[in-house]
Amino acid sequence: MAPITEVEGRRVALSNLEKVLYPATGFTKAELLHYYATTAQVLLPHLRDRAVSFLRYPDGPDGQVFFAKNVPPGTPDWVTTAEVPRSEGPARMVLVQDLASLMWAANLVTEFHTHQWTADDPGEADRLVFDLDPGPPATVVQCCEVALWLRERLAADGVEAYAKTSGAKGLHLLAGVRGAPSEQVSDYAKALAVEAERELPKLVVHRMTRSLRPGKVFVDWSQNAARKTTAAPYTVRARAVPAVSTPVTWDEVAGCRRAEQFVFRAGDVGPRVQDYGDLLAPLLERRRAAALP
């Protein structure tokens, strides 16, 4: 029987704590759960009130990896859920609102992915996102060059951008927006991606076509679609090592010269939070969200 832990008055079963999830580093499930427990203060605000998709990898990234969007079987009745719209009809998804829910979900061994809208208002996006994905031999170093251009371009429209590593090989740009449906945000993001390709033709591509991407940065604007989700800040990724989607400063973006500089593992995040706090905290301030032009 899995040991039962009490978390904020809730009984949470935590199983297979000795299991090694990341063989390359020996990182165990117990270490994964400890990571989420100790970063909850910065992670939870970015999950709260958002329908969460789980990218599950219960036997580690080398095992089966699969998305779970609906409420999983066996979900405790104290976990908050919400009905959300989908093209095929309404569905019920999990909201990770508190530490107990976070630890229950983390025990499933999952990446956390969220939409760019909150469950109480799925008709209005409150986030704009660019996923900068390098086509080899390009790396995150080239993503940083593109990110700096996009930051300035967004600022010209009064939109303040923030950066985080994807936890894989690229970079995410996020901005708070208001008063716009997802379709309008997608159109705006696409227009900027096209503009970036026009201004930086040797560096940027805005189309997903694989043959166009070697040596360039794909500026993926499509994740602004209402149906799509993006890896949440501070989530551990199902990669060879326990890399985390980690907020970074713009000075770090400007100073990135080697891809290794932007690989942050679970053990790196706590000290960064102590030094910087939550670099994405401004996204949580509604007053700082921008109206799109």
From TrEMBL:
Gene3D superfamilies recorded: DNA primase, PRIM domain (3.90.920.10)
Keyword Transmembrane helix listed: no
Name of one Pfam family that matches: LigD_Prim-Pol
UniProt-listed Enzyme Commission number(s): 6.5.1.1
Keywords: Ligase
GO molecular function, a single term: DNA ligase (ATP) activity
Highest taxon in the source lineage: Bacteria
Domain DNA ligase D polymerase residues, every copy: 28-279
Matching PANTHER family: BIFUNCTIONAL NON-HOMOLOGOUS END JOINING PROTEIN LIGD
Protein name: Non-homologous end-joining DNA ligase
Provenance organism: Streptomyces olivaceus
Taxonomic lineage of the native organism: Bacteria, Bacillati, Actinomycetota, Actinomycetes, Kitasatosporales
